[in-house]
Amino acid sequence: MYRRVGLRTAGEGYVLTLTPTQFELVRRVLLDLYGGSHAPEVVALAVGEASAELLRLQGREVDFQARENIEVPLSHFDLRVLYGALAFAFLNRSSEEAFHHRYGFYSENVQAVAWAICAALRKTGNQVP
């Protein structure tokens, strides 16, 4: 389930397609990273500044009853920031229990979504919009 995401080029950027659960995982990672849990210097080093569009995902609610995939338009820069945020969350874990307590997901789920983004990017033919 976590190993598949959709990614297609769209104009100057991409559209990332996530399940509601994947979206919630991404939302929680962004909330933690950009919500004040980490020093600004750490965030700048790990992933850099996120655009306003990417940060708006933090407040977006997920309708788990609808079971419809969620499409997220992203610039190339935002896709890189999102991948970096997932990688930072995965690498910054002190224990699996602490990770699960912080995000409500297991670290392997975050790793799988990050890998799925890379796999989906390869399928786009490595086209950078």
Mean pLDDT: 88
Globally, the shape reads globular
Rg measurement, Å: 14 Å
Overall helicity? 40-55%
The H/E string reads: EEHHHEHHH
Beta percentage is 5-15%
Main beta-sheet strand count, sense and barrel state: 3 strands, antiparallel
The low-confidence runs, each spanning 5 or more residues with pLDDT under 50, are: none
> Number of DSSP strands?
3
Structural class: alpha+beta
Query: What distance lies between the first and last C-alpha atoms, to the nearest angstrom?
Result: 27 Å
Number of helices: 6
Physical arrangement of strands within the biggest beta sheet: 1-2-3
Question: What features would you describe in this structure?
Answer:
- The chain is of the alpha+beta class.
- It contains 6 helices and 3 strands.
- It has helices at 20-34, 40-46, 52-56, 76-91, 96-103, 107-123, and strands spanning 6-10, 13-18, 70-75.
- Helix 4 runs antiparallel to helix 6 (107-123).
- It starts with 5 loop residues before the first strand and ends in a 6-residue tail after the last helix.
